[in-house]
């Protein structure tokens, strides 16, 4: 079974960080190509969890992930699948639109993934820790203490700080919330690379990832957008009877609803993200 934290030692060079593949095989194929174009070794490619999710090819996505073999932690979706649950574990308000739609895609994913894929998920750790450019870095999904916790840029630093203290890290890399952002405070940095399986509610079909770089012995990070065949991903969702509104999001770049978002992030819907 999965360990709580996997320590992978010291890394150097470029590191590709991406999150939320969400069963979007076309996006996974595109990010794999980015790694190859930048000559980033597979051991320096790290996913923040939720390999499985909204889109139409959960089993195919797991198979490509296994064949490529980047590192990953458990997302809440993987944990729920391992536990045989009937929902994604995001703790949506019962009866909300997110709750209703998640039941549709989670049931679909549960029926598609094979026992072999479930066994693969069971090998993933909850967290990954490593050193890079003289920084201690911890990769979490939501937060260290709660895989399903939604943490956004507007989330008070007082909720972020315990993650650094608990892990004795200068850098936290997180996923889950679906939006790319970073925040620096008291020589600590919280980085969310965004997700590649769904757009960032910014009105663009492109998705987001981050590359870390230690050139000149400095810690650097840069956000990038990823182009992929979102039209095919959309088409496959519709063909398999998955929620039409989520399929449309792949094309419009706008979320169907904003139930999980704080007011600050709600007001940013459709606005271009700049770093």
Structural notes for this entry:
This is Metallophosphoesterase family protein. InterPro entries: Ap4A_hydrolase, Calcineurin-like_PHP_lpxH, Metallo-depent_PP-like, Pesterase_MJ0912. One of its GO terms (cellular component) is cytoplasm. GO terms for molecular function: phosphatase activity. The chain is 32% helix and 20% strand. The protein has 275 residues and is an alpha/beta fold. The strands form two sheets. Strands 1-5-6-7-9-8 form a six-stranded mixed β-sheet, with helices on one face. Helix 1 (25-37) runs parallel beside helix 2 (58-68) and helix 7 (230-239) packs antiparallel against helix 8 (244-252). The radius of gyration is 17 Å and the shape is globular.
In short:
This protein has 275 residues and is an alpha/beta fold. The protein has helices spanning 25-37, 58-68, 76-82, 97-112, 115-121, 157-167, 230-239, 244-252, 263-266; strands at residues 5-10, 14-18, 45-47, 71-72, 127-132, 135-139, 171-173, 181-185, 188-192, 207-213, 220-226.
